Amino acid sequence: MRIGLTGGIGSGKSTVARILVEAGAHLIDTDAIAHALTAPGGAAIPAIRAAFGDEFIDPGGALDRRRMRERVFTEPAARERLQALLHPLITQIALADAATAETASPPPPCVVFDVPLLVESGHWRERVDKVLVVDCEETTQVERVSQRPGWSAERARAVIAAQASRAARHAAADAVIYNDGISVAALRTQVLDLLRSWGAL
Fold first, then answer.
1. Torsions phi, psi for 75 (to 5 deg)
2. Are 26 and 101 in contact (CB under 8 A)?
3. Which residues does the annotation say bind ATP (predicted)?
4. Which of 85, 122, 149, 190 has the fewest CB atoms within 10 Å, counting from its CB?
5. Which 3 state secondary structure label does DSSP give 109?
6. What is the rounded distance in angstroms from the CA atom of residue 19 to the CA atom of residue 24?
7. Backbone angles phi, psi at 178, to 5 degrees
8. Helix boundaries (H) for 149-201
9. Binding-site positions for ATP
């Protein structure tokens, strides 16, 4: 089974991903793939340089994430241009990783694609059997994110506003895990019960 895992920033998606790995899932982290593509010598660097200019490449040869973040949050067209460069490469690498995992002996009970922009991308739904959304109240998201080093509540709200709405994620979901005001143990129970119901354990 292929499962698409998504959720807004601060929802606890990374914690759910760890629980899935502990349960035997093969995890494919598309954020990690994106970081590799935009690291020094990454496959996406030449295209980013051509599309945005040298000022978006740092002295070490990697994507200048701070500068790019500021640009894409203020210019939706720039965000779309960046995603058009990265998403095909990310998808290609992720699907190749999944195919390799599924031919292992024995294969994992499920392959999980951790895709923060699953709903926004528009093409992941057809590539997975199930979509699992991790959800919580927006106030909880802001509280969690603003506790991270270098983050403020204002910046957290700006990121949340730029992501798909909770309603849009719910509409795309086969199941929603609510991670608000519960312990990690209770969260784990929810996740494992869901996997059993899907036959993915």
1. -130, 100
2. yes
3. 10-15
4. 149
5. coil
6. 9
7. -90, 115
8. 153-162, 166-172, 184-198
9. 10-15
Q: How many Å apart are CA 49 and CA 3, to the nearest integer?
A: 34
pLDDT by position in tens, the chain (length 201): 999 999 988 898 999 999 999 999 999 999 999 999 999 989 999 999 999 999 999 999 999 988 898 888 788 888 889 988 998 999 999 999 999 999 988 889 899 999 988 888 878 888 999 999 999 998 998 999 998 888 888 888 988 888 888 999 999 999 999 999 889 999 999 999 999 999 877
Quote the pTM value: 0.88
187, 15 contact by CB (below 8 A): yes
107-108-114-115 Cα dihedral, nearest 10 degrees: 40
Q: What DSSP line would sit under 135-147, residue for residue? A: E--HHHHHHHHHT
Strands 111-114 and 2-7: parallel
Tokens of 124: 């992941």
Cα separation of 121 and 85, whole Å?
Answer: 12
Give the domains, in start order, of the chain with CATH numbers: 1-25+109-196 (3.40.50.300), 32-107 (no CATH)
Strand partners, 27: 112
Residues making up the annotated binding site are 10-15
Instruction: Tokens 């995890």: give the residue.
Output: 27
Residue 10 in tokens: 């601060």
